[in-house]
Amino acid sequence: MTHTHLKQDILAAILTAMTVALSILVVIPVPATNGFVTLCEVGIYTSAILLGPKVGAIVGGGSGFLIDIITGYPVWCLFSLLIHGTQGLVVGLLASQQRPTLKTYLGPLLIGSAIMVAGYFLATALLFGWPAGLASVFGNCLQVGFGMAVTTAMVSSLRKLVPHLT
Questions:
Q1: Structural domains for the chain
Q2: Of 82, 91, 81, 93, which is closest to residue 114 (Cα–Cα)?
Q3: Which residues fall within 8 angstroms of residue 161, CB to CB, at 6 or more apart?
């Protein structure tokens, strides 16, 4: 393993821990689906945009899995690993193909958000039935919408503070 890869893996671990901490600070239960809404998209999207698909996937999958385990929702942990990992990977891949402006990240963020909403719709429907799956859509849309807004502000600020993050 090269020094650069080791630094990237350490950074991914730190960002995963920070995303878990941020998400646990704000947990909004959704009784209809036995799930909850968090701020994990902020960590996933920011990591994916600034550091690429590998870090986005690690932060997404790792934080989603750990949040579910720590907050007492283990039934969701494997779904979260897959859904949020894919979300971070796809946003990172699509964002890395764009010129680094906030306007160009709208598409990758919307696609990542669609992956999350559709993934949890299917997981919820599998676990609790189609009505519960449909009930999960609104809360997940709020979560990703808020995550996109905060990410946009964070990425803009971080790029000004650390210009080489493009």
A1: 3-165 (1.10.1760.20)
A2: 91
A3: none
